[in-house]
Design brief:
The protein is α/β, with parallel strands linked by helices. The protein has 17 helices and eleven strands. GO terms for molecular function: glycosyltransferase activity; nicotinate phosphoribosyltransferase activity.
Length: about 400
């Protein structure tokens, strides 16, 4: 049972990643009738989450009681790419508990199932706070007296490395909400980074902390958006192009970072032609070898007669500071660079982080999937559809 005097983990509906709002606005304007299903997965072997099911449910109940405040709505209204009708919709919005189930897996192996099912417009904001809830509940119960001094020591070593003179132009952002040790720890990390490296901190994906601490909120699109377009577009083979075109139609040149690995990088390059090379400001890496990806992306721009020095490459896959520096040294001067660092910033206190995800698996009753360049990231409940998707996009199955 959950302990008495339960302390809320999520205290604001802004405590999520910016790309949830940017995608949600597209859903409101283009796909308001879409129905979706998401599933939870913990990639850590041997982690038993079943003792925490009741507490997770209690936190979800409290999450669903939250509403956007007038100050929060005014903040969103002040973002140049957020439209007034979307803010008015959010003024009426709340998360509904009826769309979420949390239960022990029928396998009886310590796994839990979290199933989110309902209208996309009303379920899209569940993913990030639910992952943050699972993380914080788990670490509250397994590490009731966390070694914060060790976490601060580790963070200080990272910031000293980043602030060294050769790297003063290396800019990073916090992408760590979903797998943070706790809400309070993420806030401490952000404030420590701001004080230690100043302009090298580009901002944070977390809208709540961006508002509270006058930081830049960062984010554009996530895999779920491109996955949903597999069911929403006119033809499966054209779904990636359709998703990018719908995005450009909504934002008219703003939020111009494309995600490159929903169908595998080869398929992305085939679709990301001269038009998209010029239209989008840059691309984000989230799976596969980042050095190979960067070299191929720069070569692709050059082959399309686009100067890569005017484009931004964002690296965001399981980064730590030494890898950030290695990538910075490889690509600086050849393109604009940015780095989104998540778990290694917000959950590095000496304990093994949870590798947990919530992924869309269906849209309008049809399976959808991500063909990741890192095979273990692929998540689909229909093997037949996965094979068909690989065939359509000429993506080989992993050996």
């Amino acid at each position: 049972m959950p302990p008495s005097g339960l302390v809320m983990i999520i205290r604001s509906l802004l405590d999520t990643d910016l790309y949830k709002f940017t995608m949600m606005q597209v859903v409101l304007h283009h796909f308001p009738q879409a129905q979706v299903e998401y599933r939870f997965k913990c990639r850590n072997a041997g982690v038993d989450l079943t003792p925490y099911v009741d507490e997770i449910r209690s936190q979800i109940t409290q999450l669903c009681q939250l509403r956007f405040t007038d100050d929060e709505l005014n903040y969103l209204r002040g973002l140049r790419f957020i439209k007034s009708d979307f803010v008015e919709f959010l003024a009426l919005f709340h998360l509904n508990e009826k769309y979420v189930q949390v239960l022990p897996s029928a396998k009886g192996n310590g796994e839990i199932e979290i199933i989110i099912k309902g209208p996309w417009l009303h379920t899209i904001l569940f993913e990030i706070p639910l992952l943050a809830i699972v993380n914080e509940v788990y670490f509250r119960r397994t590490q009731p007296k966390p070694d914060l001094a060790e976490g601060r020591r580790r963070l200080q070593a990272k910031l000293e490395l980043l602030a060294a003179p050769p790297y003063v132009d290396c800019v990073i952002a916090d992408y760590g909400t979903r797998r943070r040790f706790s809400c309070d720890w993420q806030e401490e990390v952000l404030l420590s980074m701001r004080d230690a490296i100043g302009p090298q901190l580009a901002g944070t994906s977390n809208v709540h902390f961006a508002r509270l601490h006058n930081m830049t909120p960062l984010g554009t699109m996530a895999h779920e958006y491109l996955q949903a377009c597999q069911a929403l577009g006119p033809r499966l083979r054209d779904s990636q192009v359709y998703a990018l075109e719908r995005w450009a139609h909504e934002y008219r040149g703003d939020l111009g970072i494309a995600l490159s690995d929903t169908y595998g990088f080869d398929a992305f390059l085939r679709d990301f032609d001269l038009y998209f090379c010029k239209l989008f400001d840059g691309v984000r890496h989230d799976s596969g070898d980042p050095f190979e990806w960067g070299e191929r992306m720069i070569a692709h721009y050059a082959a399309n007669r686009v100067d890569p020095r005017g484009k931004t490459l964002i690296f965001s896959d399981a980064l730590d500071i030494p890898k950030v520096i290695e990538l910075y040294e490889r690509f600086r001067g050849r393109c604009k660079l940015a780095f989104g660092v998540g778990t290694n910033l917000t959950n590095d206190l000496g304990y093994k982080p949870l590798q947990i995800v919530i992924k869309m698996v269906r849209c309008n009753g049809q399976p959808v999937a991500k063909l990741s360049d890192t095979p273990e990231k692929t998540m689909c409940d229909d093997p037949g559809y996965l094979s068909y998707l690989r065939q359509v996009f000429a993506v080989q199955a992993p050996a």
